[in-house]
Amino acid sequence: EKMLMKGADALTNAELIAILIGSGNSKETAVELSQRILNDNGNNLSELSRKDITQLKKYKGIGEVKAISISAAMEIGRRRNY
To answer: Which residues of 3-40 are buried (b: 16+ CB within 10 A; e: fewer)?
Structure first.
């Protein structure tokens, strides 16, 4: 909704990742979970991009499909830079 109204530039990195994962877990919203994942990676998308699917799946609420979505988005970003 926010992206539709204000554009992608208005979203935080956590909000963008939350769009990828769609939902959080029983204790966190998708945005809160995304913020925690980013915090654990120094709020650095480059650091996050180095995490493999197994490492991402360690977060409660991140299963294989969500981990693959995050990894795929990071790979697209990496390829865009080339």
So the answer is: eeeeeeeebeebbebbbbbeebeeebebbebbbbbbee
Helix axes 13-21, 30-40, angle to 10 degrees: 120
Q: Which of 56, 65, 8 is nearest to 34 (CA)?
A: 56
Task: Please list the ranges in the chain whose pLDDT falls under 50.
Answer: none
Which pair of tokens denotes residue 63? 């299963």
Establish how many alpha carbons lie within 13 A of residue 1's alpha carbon, considering only the half-sphere containing its beta carbon: 0
For 11, list phi and psi in degrees, rounded to 5: -90, 145
pLDDT for res 26: 94
* Residue 68, burial from CB neighbour count under 10 angstroms (0-12, 13-18, 19+): middle
